[in-house]
Write a structure and sequence with these properties.
It is rod-shaped and about 190 Å long. Strands 1, 2, 3, 4 and 5 form a five-stranded mixed sheet that branches. The protein is 21% helix and 16% strand. The longest helix has 21 residues. The protein has a domain of 100 residues: TolA/TonB C-terminal domain (2-Layer Sandwich). It is an alpha+beta fold.
């Protein structure tokens, strides 16, 4: 079977036109590609930043009105004698300035009688009436062994110190070294019961002398 072509459907006749159209389109695209320019994109706007005004608060101020006190009147010193009247014009102000000199009376302490000096060593030491032997006999007859010290077997030496004044009297009797058990109190009692001593002398004059007297408490 023979195929028949429609003369109007033959595309070979329009091939030149299609070629020209293709060339025109290709040249146009090439020109467009060479002339195309790419611009940098600018940063888009972030918009306007609006900061609202801070809210203002009216804080009431507490103002205290302090009224200054009135200045004190200047002091006025008036000295009036018994039979003398001072007129108002004679009154003088006693305002004190930097050049004002104030005389302050100095009150000296009253000096009492000086305490006589107490010696420990003098030319002539005080002595018991009758001498040392009489002192030992007095101590032996008048000293009693305390019952508490006897029961506890307490023994030892008690040293009593005292002052023999200018008249031979015994003062300031104290225990310098004690052993307790009532022995200290017994030694003080015996010393206070002694008669006046012969006072000590320094350069021929009687003076106060500190004297130490030992008591020996021994159990037999």
């Amino acid at each position: 079977m023979e195929l028949k072509k429609n003369p109007g459907a033959d595309l070979n006749k329009q091939r030149g036109i299609f070629f020209q159209i293709g060339m025109v389109v290709s040249v146009g695209l090439m020109l467009y590609a060479f002339n195309y320019k790419q611009y940098e994109q600018s940063a888009s706007s972030l918009g306007d930043l609006v900061i609202e005004d801070p809210v203002e608060m009216d804080v009431p101020q507490t103002e205290q009105k302090v009224t200054p006190p009135p200045p004190p009147p200047p002091p006025v010193l008036e000295v009036v004698a018994d039979d003398e009247v001072i007129e108002e014009d004679e009154v003088q102000s006693t305002e004190v300035t930097q050049d004002t000199k104030i005389d302050i009376p100095v009150i000296e302490p009253e000096e009492g009688p000086a305490e006589p000096e107490i010696f420990t060593i003098v030319e002539e030491m005080p002595s018991f009436p009758g001498g040392d032997q009489a002192l030992l006999e007095f101590m032996g007859k008048n000293t009693k062994y305390p019952p508490m010290a006897r029961e506890n077997g307490l023994q030892g030496i008690v040293v009593v110190t005292f002052v023999v004044d200018e008249k031979g009297n015994i003062n300031n009797v104290q225990v310098l070294r004690g052993i307790g058990g009532g022995c200290d109190e017994e030694a003080i009692r015996v010393v206070k019961s002694m008669p006046p001593w012969k006072p000590g002398k320094q350069r021929g004059l009687p003076v106060r002398v500190q004297y130490n007297l030992p008591f020996r408490f021994t159990l037999r």
